[in-house]
Design brief:
Strand 9, helix 8 and strand 10 form a beta-alpha-beta unit. The longest helix is centred in the first third of the chain and has 15 residues. This protein is an alpha/beta fold. It contains 17 helices and 20 strands.
Length: 537
């Protein structure tokens, strides 16, 4: 069950649902009441498309009754929103009693730190101003990742405020469809009063240096009826004496600039947020970037180090990419969203299996080292995908490694590394007793031993995984290969599938010289070139 905040009625649902759907788990989505109409439109479009199974995505708008009381250890509850609401849900008796997996991503007091090297004339200074302005105004600052605290060297504090104010002067608030408007409204009138109240709290220990929370000029809209608040910047000249700026969040177009004297102070100020989703470090000084990263990483789910070299391709402070963590410790909730495969695994119950290699291979359809190998008169490469069995194998004859082979391989490829060409230098190497065969020669030799050269159902070798060289191979060694069908994966809507083979190369003493997985595409018995052309068309 996904309980989502009002500020992301579409994206908040989709980024969670994508991961749980890939994990094979249906979802109930509960959007915030203020923006539930948008979510309902999105869900209806998805369901009407017919692209997902019936029941895979369900929607509840409004109250959920006693739904949380029915969760079990097989359920997952995710929450995005305020830290206070998240803590309340996390303590629900059913969630506690059943240890229901609960993930919380809460709004946090994210920071941007501008390095002391980044004076007003540097590209980094301009990048920081642009980043803060963007995070204040996109979605009117109603983002869980928005920059709330800006840390600048005291010498640059006023210059930064002046530059940010100049940027904000160009922001036009009003109806989003009106020409020239660059910032819209908050989510509701209630949010206007909430943001104004939190600005008042912050102003008890900081001064407003830009904007007026009580007044906002708007374009093509009614300022009294619409949910409009203009950008507001505060300055906290004594940030260590003011706890409010590190604990209170005005969830709108609001940021507080605070000075630091040393890098250690900048780290300390960043950590005072009590755990955040993201922090940005804008600097061209690698020393400052390293100190801030090591000091702040334990308190932040994600850190962006921004400078002139990566600015053009950077996704920015507020844009986590799908393979990155979106979550953070402490106030940020302690959860993870997105995160590539981590997000998919979050929705899976994982269990460890113990047993003999042969028994486990039958259970999970995956050959394991130590399991039986089955040899037949028919080479495995002559078997179609649907004929191959897990454990089908070929154990090859041995082939001797010769000095002539090593030198030919070296001259042919250009790989004349001393360990292959110079006996004395190779002996001086603590890993070798003399000249050794190239690792890639061993792999090539192995292929020559196990490959069936005649045409057959094997269509292509498209990769090698987990290659390791375990024992050196010397001239005079006799190498042989055990190639075993390890795993099969049928490719959907095709007449072929992926076969993963375990390749183990051993020497005359049965020592493992090399080990790796060979990946091939193998046709089914239904495959023909003509059928493949038809499928492609």
């Amino acid at each position: 069950m996904h309980i989502n905040a009002f500020n992301f009625p579409c994206w908040g649902m989709l980024e969670k649902f994508a991961a749980n759907y890939l994990a094979g788990l249906p979802a109930i989505v509960k959007p915030a009441t203020q923006t539930a109409f948008v979510t309902e439109d999105m869900v209806r479009a998805i369901v009407d498309s017919g692209l997902i199974e019936e029941g895979a995505l369900q929607l509840i708008s409004g109250g959920v009754g006693d739904l949380l009381g029915h969760v079990t250890c097989q359920d997952v509850v995710t929450f995005t929103g305020s830290a206070a609401t998240g803590r309340k849900l996390k303590q629900h008796p059913a969630i506690v009693e059943n240890a229901t997996r609960f993930s919380m991503e809460a709004d946090s007091l994210n920071f941007l730190a501008l390095g002391p090297d980044a004076g007003p004339d540097t590209p980094e200074f301009k990048l920081a101003v642009k980043e803060v302005m963007r995070e204040m105004t996109v979605k009117a600052g109603q983002k869980c990742t928005a920059i709330r605290r800006v840390l600048v060297a005291r010498d640059h504090q006023q210059a930064f405020i002046d530059a940010l104010s100049e940027k904000l002067d160009k922001v036009v608030v009003g109806h989003p469809e009106a020409e020239g408007v660059t910032m819209g409204a908050l989510a509701s009138r209630d949010q206007v009063e909430e943001v104004r109240a939190r600005i008042a709290d912050l102003a008890q220990g900081a001064r407003i240096v830009y904007g007026d929370p009580a007044r906002c000029e708007v374009v093509d809209a009614d300022a009294d009826k619409g949910a409009f608040v203009g950008p507001v910047v505060l300055s906290a000249d004594a940030p260590f004496d003011n706890t409010a700026i590190h604990t209170i969040e005005a969830f709108g177009p609001v940021a507080t600039v605070m000075p630091y004297e040393t890098t250690e102070e900048a780290v300390a100020l960043a950590r005072l947020g009590g755990g955040s989703l993201v922090g940005s470090i804008v600097t061209y000084d690698a020393g400052f970037a390293r100190a801030m990263t090591l000091g702040c990483a334990p308190f932040h789910g994600r850190l962006l180090v921004l400078d002139r070299d990566c600015a053009k391709e950077s996704t920015g402070h507020g844009s986590p990419m799908p393979m990155l963590v979106h979550g953070g410790p402490g106030r940020a909730g302690g959860g993870e969203e997105l995160g590539g495969m981590r997000a998919v695994f979050h929705y899976m119950q994982r269990s460890a299996l113990q047993g003999s290699p042969d028994m486990l291979a039958d259970v999970i359809d995956h050959w394991l080292p130590g399991g039986k190998r089955v040899q037949t008169d028919r080479h495995p490469f002559q078997k179609h995908f649907d004929e191959l069995e897990i454990g089908d194998a070929i154990l090859t004859d041995a082939r001797e490694v010769t000095l002539e082979d090593i030198e030919h391989f070296a001259n042919f490829t250009g790989d004349t590394f001393y360990a292959h060409m110079d006996e004395e230098a190779a002996k001086a190497n603590p890993f070798f007793d003399g000249r050794v065969a190239h690792g890639y020669y061993i792999v090539s030799l192995a292929a020559g031993l196990f490959v069936e050269p005649n045409p057959g159902p094997v269509l292509a070798n498209y990769g090698v995984d987990n290659l390791r060289f375990m024992t050196p191979a010397y001239p005079g060694d006799a190498l042989k290969v055990a190639l075993t069908c390890k795993h099969k994966t049928k490719r959907e809507n095709t007449e072929y599938g992926e076969v993963r083979w375990d390749a183990t190369v051993t020497n005359q003493n049965d020592e493992v010289v090399a080990q790796y997985d060979v990946l091939t595409m193998v046709a089914t018995t239904d495959w023909t070139p003509e059928a493949e052309e038809t499928a492609a068309a």
